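= Paired protein data =
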Amino acid sequence: MDDANTALARLCRAMDELLSHVEGVPDPAFCLRPPGEEWSLAETVEHVALATQATLARLRQLFASPLAPDVKCFDDGKIDAEMFRMDGPAPALAVPTGRFATRAAGVAALRAACDGIAEWVAQLERNPREFGLPHPVFGSFDGVQWILFAAAHADNHAPQLRAIRARLALAPPS
C-alpha cells in the first residue's frame, strides 16, 4: 500500500526529527521544566508518545469501520503541524503525568508506538483508505490520514522541544 508506506516514511522522519532534540540530554535536564514552559522535555515526549499510542489503537480498530460513500474525510493536504495551532489543553488521553524518569524510557515509548504503526502498515491486506474513524476535533480520518496525523503531531512538537532545550541552555544536538 503505497499511500500507507509514504505516510509511514513521513511519520518516521518526523519522529527522528523530534527525538533529535532530546539526544544527549542528561536525565535531570530531561525532566526539568524551565520557567515559562508548560512542559518539560520528558512531558512533551510523553504527550507525543501517548498521542501516537492512541493513533495506533485507532488503527487497530480501523478495519471494523468501512467508510460510507457519503462520508467526507479530512483533506490530506491540511494534515500538517499548522492544524495544531489552536489554544486549549491537550486531550485527556494525552496529558503527561510524569511517566518517564529517564530520557531512555521516553525515547523507548515513543519508538515503540512508532514501531507498532510500522508493524500495522507491514501487515496491511486491505486498503486503509477505504476505512475510517472519526477524530474528536477534525472529522473523519481514513487509515492513511491517521498516520499522517501522527506525523503532523510530532512535527508540531519539535519546535517546542527545541525551545525547551534552549531555555535549559543545553547545546543543540550534534
About this structure: The first helix runs from residue 2 to 20. The domain at 2-167 is CATH 1.20.120.450 (Four Helix Bundle (Hemerythrin (Met), subunit A)).
